[in-house]
Amino acid sequence: MNSENGALVEFYRDAVQNNFKSAEAGRPIFDEKDFVRIQTPGDTRTVIERVASDQDKQRFPKAWDMFSRGLEVAEQGTPLEEWPQVTRSQVKELKHVNITTVETLAAVSDGNIQRLGPGYQQLRERAKQFLESADADAAATQWAREREAMQERIRLLEEANEALKAASKAEAPEKRSPGRPKKAVE
């Protein structure tokens, strides 16, 4: 399932029996239709499954685009298994309610986090703190890269400046001594 607009979304294709065509043919006839499954992270009781409408396609454009191109939706974010602040049992419990990344855990609503039981509210807060610190680290890393690139540019400009100075010294005419120039002897 893909996390988009605060919901877990999955588009899929399924065969639906066409009663009219089946009655005409005297055997079961099926038509393929596109369906959508929508679920709130952390809530397994509320799952909406229906034929996908144009409104669903507009509301969840990334998931629809991936489905229509036949691509598997890759989960984006930090997998819970890779986050050292959760136990294996917590990972299994969270996966049961379709929470598979730290980002999804941080976005779970208060009502749904309370249903998970004691300790999960603190875990959600730690997920939020982890993401905030990761954002700060990313900004610091970006700043360091920009600084390094600027220092390299300064070094190159200084080298070019030194080369120009050396070239201008080589091309400069000899300096005259002070005073009047000597008369040329004919």
Structure explained in plain terms:
This protein is an alpha+beta fold and 186 residues long. It folds into 2 domains: 1-74, no CATH class; 77-163. The protein is 51% helix and 16% strand. The protein is built from 7 helices and 4 strands; from the N terminus they run ββαββαααααα. It has a 4-stranded antiparallel sheet with strand order 1-2-3-4. The radius of gyration is 34 Å and the shape is elongated. The model has no long low-confidence stretch (mean pLDDT 82).
Strand tally is 4
pLDDT below 50 for ≥5 consecutive residues: which ranges? none
Spatial separation of the terminal alpha carbons:
99 Å
- The structure class reads alpha+beta
Q: Going across the major beta sheet, what is the strand order?
A: 1-2-3-4
Helices and strands, in order, run as EEHEEHHHHHH
Shape: elongated
Beta fraction: 15-25%
- Percent helix, as a range, is 40-55%
Number of helices: 7
Helix/strand layout:
Layout: E1 2-4, E2 7-17, H1 19-25, E3 30-39, E4 47-51, H2 54-59, H3 61-68, H4 88-96, H5 102-106, H6 110-116, H7 120-171
Antiparallel strand pairs: 1-2, 2-3, 3-4
